[in-house]
Structures are given as C-alpha cells and as structure tokens.
Design goal:
The chain has helices at about 15-20, 20-35, 50-60, 80-90, 105-110, 130-140, 155-170; strands at about 40-45, 65-70, 95-100, 115-120, 140-150, 170-175, 195. It has about 210 residues and is of the alpha/beta class. Helix 3 links the parallel strand 1 and strand 2. The structure holds S-adenosylmethionine. S-adenosylmethionine (SAM) binds near residues 19, 47 and 130.
C-alpha cells in the first residue's frame, strides 16, 4: 500500500479508486484466519491488494494444501497483469490459480468440476445481474456454514443482489465480522459485509418467494 503497484492505468488516482483499502484488506485477512480458511475463491483481481491479503491469510492458517482460485477476465488486457505479478513477487502464486474468464463462466465450471471452498471474496463486476449470478454459483461451491465476503455492499446494485439470498435462502450478515472495515460516513453502511451461509442448505418452494 505504501509503494503502490509497479504500474497503473492512465486514470487519475486509479490505484486508490479501484483497489481494496488497506483496513478492509486487513479485516478480510483476519476473518479468514479466524475461520481457518483453507480454500478461498476470489472474484476480481485488478491491483491485487485483496488477493495479497487472502494469500497472507492462507499462509498464516498453514493448511497442508491451501488454495486460492482467482477469477478476472481482464487481468491481462486491462490491468497488464499487475495484480498477478504482485502475487508472484510475494511467492503467493504457489498457492493460487488465475482464471482469465468472466466469473459467470468460471464459477459454473468450478461447480461442474465439483470444487468446494470455505470462503469467497467477491469484488468483480458490480452489475446487479452479474453479482446475482456470482452468488448463485458460489452458493453451490462454498461449504455449509462457510462465508462469502461481498465488497461494495454500499452500492444498491450489489446490496439488492445480496438481499435475495438474505431474505430467501437464510444467508446472514455477521455483524461482528470484519473489524475495522470502511463504513460510509453519511449512511453508516459498511463497504464490505461477511455473509454466513446456513449450516443446513435448503431449496425453498417457489411459492414461498419473498420479494427483496
Ligand atoms: C474493483 S476491481 C477489484 C479490486 C481488487 N479487489 C483489488 O484489491 O485491487 C474489480 C475487478 O473485477 C474484474 N471484473 C469485471 N468484470 C468481471 C467479471 N465478469 N468476472 C470477474 N471479474 C470481473 C475487473 O477486471 C477488476 O479487476
């Protein structure tokens, strides 16, 4: 965070605008360590700040076979591979795999492959329908009782997508998680939330649909 990435896109303050702030990176790292996460899926690599935090957590947990699957279709074309190179410079690529596809395709393939994980961090496309689809597939990948950390919950498009799962599928925001994260001064809405999936997943009847 002090030095910044080796290069940025040609927009003013692009690194500060795009990347996850340091305090949120620390909060995510600490949450993943607390839950002893061994396998984590990440959507949206960009400058790699969140990926470095997740990698740090996985190393700290010290599982035998940690795994960090990172999905970003634009890491090469838009970000000149800066995020991935930073992971390489920290030797965190040894426990990571980068998938250069849109998350809707990559996550559906992970479902087909029978992939499971303890947690996910979602900071990819912020369009409602794409966040909704990310959460749809992650629900099939993250283990019962696992956690999905959703960045930019303070944006209506992102929050609306999450509300479906909160209202209809038993996902719960863990209020005490993510100590120190960024909070909007005016609304007090947190930037990122940790959503805990139910211990006993269920498929609700379509008649019990709750508008969200
Ligand atoms: C806000 S940035 C992520 C910032 C990153 N967490 C960090 O700390 O630097 C959003 C990222 O999502 C990626 N993205 C956009 N559409 C996507 C999609 N459909 N699937 C996966 N990633 C996507 C972008 O290329 C970009 O890298």
């Amino acid at each position: 965070m002090r030095e910044g990435p080796p290069s940025t896109r040609d927009y003013a303050n692009d690194f500060d605008t795009v990347t996850l702030p340091e305090r949120d990176c620390d909060a995510i790292r600490d949450l993943l360590i607390d839950m002893a996460a061994e396998k984590v899926i990440e959507v949206g690599l960009a400058y790699g700040s969140s990926a470095l935090a997740i990698g740090e957590a996985l190393i700290a947990v010290g599982a035998e076979r940690p795994m960090h699957i990172i999905i970003d279709p634009l890491q090469d074309s838009e970000w000149s591979n800066v995020g991935w190179q930073l992971l390489q410079s920290a030797a965190l690529d040894a426990i990571a795999r980068l998938v250069l596809q849109p998350s809707s395709l990559a996550l559906s393939q992970l479902v087909v492959d029978g992939c499971t994980a303890d947690a996910a961090f979602v900071d990819g496309s912020h369009r409602f329908h794409e966040v909704f689809v990310d959460l749809y597939f992650l629900r099939k990948i993250i283990r019962p009782g696992g956690t999905i950390i959703l960045d930019d919950y303070w944006w209506p498009s992102v929050r609306a997508a999450a509300h479906y799962y909160e209202k209809n599928l038993g996902w719960q925001i863990v209020q005490e998680a993510l100590d120190g994260r960024t909070v909007d001064d005016a609304t007090r809405c947190p930037r990122a939330v940790a959503l805990r999936l139910p211990d006993h997943p269920f498929e609700p009847a379509f008649e019990s649909f709750r508008p969200f």
